[in-house]
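User: Structure tokens for this complex, please. No commentary.
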Amino acid sequence: MLGFIVRRVLDAIPTLLVLVTVAFFMIRLAPGGPFDAEKRLPPQVEQNLRAAYHLDEPLPLQFVRYVGNLARGDFGPSFQYRDRTVTELIAIGFPVSFRIGGLALLVALLAGLSLGTVAALRQNGAADHAAMAVAMAGISVPTFVVAPLLVLLFAVTLGWLPAGGLGSGPANLVLPVLTLALPQVAYIARLTRGSLIEVLRSPFIRTARAQGLPLHTILRYHALKPALVPVLSYLGPAAAGLITGSVVVEQIFGLPGLGRYFVTGALNRDYTLVMGIVIFYGALIILCNLVVDLLYGWLDPRAVQR
Amino acid sequence: MSTTPPKTPAATAATTGPRGAAEGGLWADAFGVLRRNRAAMVAAATLALLAVLVVVVPAVSPNAFDRPDWDHISAPPALEGGRLFGTDSLGRDLLTRTFYGGRMSLLVGLVATLVSLVLGITWGAVAGYAGGRVDRVMMRIVDILYALPFMFLVILLMVLFGRNILLIFVAIGAINWLDMARIVRGQTLGLKEREFVEAARAMGVPPGAIIRRHIVPNLLGVVAVYVTLTIPQVILVESFLSFLGLGVQEPMTSWGALVNEGAQELETAPWSLVFPAAFLAVTLLCFNFLGDGLRDALDPRDRSAG
Amino acid sequence: MAEPRRTRRRALPLAALALVLGLGLAACGRGPEPGAAVPAAVAVGGATGTELHARQVLRRGGGPEPETLDPHRAEGVSSSNILRDLFEGLVGEAADGTLQPAAAASWAVSDDGLTWTFRLRPDGRWSNGDRVTAADFVYGLRRSVDPATLSEYSAILAPIENAEAVIAGERPPADLGVRALDDLTLEIRVRAPTPYLLGLLTHSSAYPVHRPTVEQYGSGFARPGRLVGNGPFVLDEWRVQSHIRLVRNAYFRDAAGTVLEEVWYYTIENADAELARYRAGELDMTYTVPARQIGWLRENLPAELKIAPYLGSYVFGFNLGQPPFRDNQPLRLALTLALDREILTGRISGAGELPAYTWVPPMPGYPSPTPEWASWTQEEREAEARRQYAAAGYSAERPLRLQLLYNTDPNHRRLAAAMAAMWREVLGVETELLNQEWQVFLQTRREGFETEAFRYGWIGDYQDPYTFLEILHSRNGLNDMGYRNPAYDELLAKAAAEVDATVRLQLLSEAERLLLADLPVLPLYFYVSKQLVKPWVAGFEPNLLDHHPSRHLRILAH
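Assistant:
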């Protein structure tokens, strides 16, 4: 087990390096640059700006410089938010996204697993169809529709909850967490249902049932764990995505999270900011997937890691 | 999707597993089961009807999908003029546009999902079955692709290939196969340790054949479920692409684009959201029930059980 | 688009669901943000109508996150709005936008129009109590044009003597035509008579900065706790992507005249989200209003909706370097005439934008050279459009196939689709619509290899026609149309050297007349500024530049 973890952590280094390389050149290939605006800069000013950020150097040299700084833990200055470093921006944005995404993940897991289990146990019954219809509603209506609808209802019409902003109490978190969790509920519920049905049919569960074990015991001790494998496969990257923020949710609810930086960074060609978030996100994905792979072994001992 | 498994002597020898590969009437049997599933059949019929309608309605409608009526801007639904769904903010008939947009969305949903299916199953099954170093490398590549900034990928594709509608499908499919690959791999890890796979291996069946005949058919249950989640995702990604300028261009449209527009008129012209969203939701629900039916139908245990 | 009042009954099932999920908790705890929504029990302004609210806290929608609050490096509208509260230039603006003395009490200009002398107020103070002197302005202006500062907007100071050379790195900043005659007297020399200099001096590029703090903290000086300004407010808190809070500057020269105690700028780049927060009572005034909601707001919040002409021009440019528009004025005229601007502005863009027949928006004192066809009926215009279309060599059998490029945005999209439909209806033109992400769009438009007709918008930096007309100078970097007319260039040059303001405006008008005959751009409409302002915000006046310094505002009892 320990050897496996060590190997995976060592794996992460070349993986991230490849990611940095591909992302670096891909971002630079896109038309436009950080100082391109409708109002064009006087040539000398542009020249100065490019020199100040080493953008006047040949691309390979810029890359070497960037990786060198990265090795020292320096993500560089943001091009768009002139007075701030990328590290600072991630440090400001991540806690917000993490809190909201983490809560959404929790809510989605609770709701999704419950709905999925109910549906699987009542396969093709009314409860199944109802549970799945509720779950599917989460992805049938896209986030950019759900979020304004919730705001209109709970903030503008009823005045129960704030329409946006960070606030300090839990009230400001309710709507964003709900919005973020909804589509995930659908994924988790559907995957749980599908694989639980499959597991419930497998010989060892049938044997257990034949022996007269009560259903909740079977679920708890035998069926649920292996049924979670596909859910988990999905959750690895999904969790990384959730806790690094959703731009739609953050924009509509005015939350200062990473997702908003990423999109404004991309639109403004803020190379360093985008790179910083890509690397951060990539490392999180690798971490989440490592956790998932570790959990595979625990959930389904047949899927041993070798 | 996988083709009909060929009948081979090796296959019959290894039928101890849940699905001992190519039984002669697999698809015929599956269809039989599917036909007995009421929800799935209703869903299939609805989808077929929709497919016909999106082709026929725009062709016979008295109102062209791209003809504005300056005197009926954002007009509510009315019998007069056949504008049963009302008009959009340019006075164009929403009934025609909704069905016209359905063409695009159904096409994107099917084609992109197919692309992601083929890529995801192949990649995931090979990685999971091969294990070891091959698995590590393949899954790290998936990690990298996850972390790459999708927005830049799209911008680059747009610059490199212009606006080829086929490219939209491929691009969307090419981003959505990652989840599929992870899920398939997770399942494969468990499957490959099962008796029937080991038996096949002991008999000297080559790995490629084992994956095709023993692994993939047993994955289809979970895959069928995930496909029902991929289709809505793909349909919505398309609307995000048009935000970046790669999606459908005006005056053409899609459900994603219509819902996006409608969401901005939640209060002022609710019909411009309600109708496209309803069609989108019904379609997704139908795919959902059809997917469930397929899952059951493809599960041999289900057949023996009832 | 009358919408029945929202009923609450409909909302109950959903609300109940939320409660069941255990999420309906804590509707109260609003966090540190000030002044939650208050029911309008008291008449606004109390009995007299001018009574002030006990808490003078203004909550403004701030637009996108400011890139910096360094006045010399900031460039966005959102940062300029905040800087207007933190700093004060020589010249300021009244609530209605007219220029008025600010840090300078008075000024005079020499007869040749080349030397301006500003007399500073003796009571000017920085927010740490230091005196504001002419040397601070000299330092600020030099820093602004110093290439080392990396200012992106310094070119606006180009009319000042030697500014261009300093910006280009050819001369040291000390050579800038600015000097302190004594502690309170500042002299600015300009390279040519510049009647709009006072307008330029309201821009943040011309603000003074507090030398000791800038030298101590370098480019990181514009942070809470460090930033020292000379404006009515000081920077108290800056939560990135969330809000910026300003509090009253007790040292401000007119601190007694500042009524507000706190100003909150909330970072909200999404106009729909901003509207929701305004309606939920979380904002007192907005940064903008989503165009699609204007009809609804006119019905439901007519008194709070403020729409006013804005110094901006929305046009489509023709690429004159390529077919079909190269050397084809009749075609450009046909496309220009065929559009029904009443419909486009009245029903599509929706905020009551002013239909445009010229490139320069209306400005006080400027004789706009409106073309003759502006007075025609739409039928007459369309008939003439068809004649010109035929003259350009097109017909129903041989229609024009046109590509119309715009940057991705729902409002541009609707407008472009409507234009395409009008062209098809009137002329039979087959238009292909193409949208591109902003940066890609800018590059495509700039390169001009493949563009035909493309969206072009321009917002004036100051109230003078020159800020618009210079764009189409043959050597201007922004001339993506590729318009080159020596006569036009010459008129601009003549105007630049003209001392008499009236004659100068005549010359500029003459230049625009040439422009409108050549039609390198298709004028569509002039922008309006759109805002929502709660009834209890007093002192708000719409103005051409959409500048609303917080010091003119106050909160009435409500």
